[in-house]
Amino acid sequence: MAPGFSRSVLRTRASASSCAQRVTIRDCADPSLRSGQAPAASFHAITHLFDPLAQQILPYLPKSPASELRVARSKSSPPPKAPEIRRKTIRIDQLKLDVARRLLGVSTETAAVNAALDLVVFRGEVFEGIDRLSAQRRSTSKKGSDVDALAITVAKGGAVAQTRELADGILADFDARGVMLSLEILDARRRMGEQLFAQLTERPKARVARR
After folding, report:
1. What is the pLDDT of residues 150-169, one digit of tens each?
2. pLDDT (tens digit, 9 = 90+) per residue, 111-160?
3. Which strands form 88-93's sheet, in the order they lie side by side?
4. What residues have CB less than 8 Å from 84, skipping those under 6 apart?
5. What is the average pLDDT score of the chain?
6. What residues make up the domain containing 65?
7. What is the rounded radius of gyration, in angstroms, for the C-alpha atoms of the chain?
8. Are residues 108 and 25 in the same domain?
9. Does residue 100 sit in the same domain as residue 196?
10. Residue 118: phi, psi to the nearest 5?
11. 73 confidence band (pLDDT: 50, 70, 90)
């Protein structure tokens, strides 16, 4: 059984006219959704697909990403609804389904569909978090003649006990308990890409296309 899912039932019927197939899905999602946590499959999937820069940073972030996301939600946001089980019949390109199953690291087609949907939802939460981060001015960009650095405050109020170089050009400050307080990424534009760098350093504008 795929991690993050308590039950999966998959029925398929191949299409004779194309590589698409009909997939009937009936799932009971991860019970953690009922408590407002992000689905476990989402975080595993997105970290699996992250670039090497993110892989170097993620191990040092708080151990409970679902809890962090829950705390970061606006107080005015309604509580998450309990999952509703629905039976759906959809047509999917078999090649895309196989590629998604391989990239997401799951064994069944049902889990691949659900993990892909979770990944989209999680990606939306990440963008919303970046928007809030920029709006609160918790991230700053420092530009120099040779160095383009991005300094991000991860946690406030702690005293820096040590600074570690997580990787070449990636420095992090930790408190006495080992909690990351801030992160500095040198040559940030090249490492992160222009779009993500701009999202982290500029006040966000309305993104109609994402809604």
Report:
1. 777 777 777 888 888 877 77
2. 888 888 877 776 666 666 555 555 554 444 444 444 567 777 777 777 88
3. 5-14, 20-29, 88-93
4. none
5. 60
6. 5-125
7. 20
8. yes
9. no
10. -60, -40
11. very low
Name the residue among 185, 208, 211 with its Cα closest to residue 196: 185
Asked, for residue 195, whether it belongs to a domain, the answer is: yes
Q: What is the pLDDT of residue 178?
A: 81
Mark whether 121 and 174 lie in a shared domain: no
Backbone angles phi, psi at 6, to 5 degrees: -90, -20
Distances (CA, A) of 130 to 40, 54, 65, 139, 180: 20, 15, 15, 10, 18
Residue 44's identity, in one-letter code, is: H
Residue range 84-109, pLDDT digits in tens: 777 778 888 888 888 888 887 888 88
Number of domains in the chain: 2
Residue 10 inside a domain? The answer is yes
Q: What's the pLDDT at 138?
A: 45
| Joined tokens for residue 204 | 């966000």
User: Which tokens hold the place of 120?
Assistant: 């989209």
Same domain assignment for residues 120 and 141: no
- Residue 10 CB partners (closer than 8 Å, separation 6+): 23, 24, 25, 108, 109, 110
Examine the fold and report which residue of 125, 150, 177 is the final residue of a domain before the chain moves on.
Answer: 125
Residues 110 and 188 both lie in one domain: no
For the record, the structure tokens of 59 come out as 């191990």
Closest CA to 104 of 185, 41, 189, 51: 41
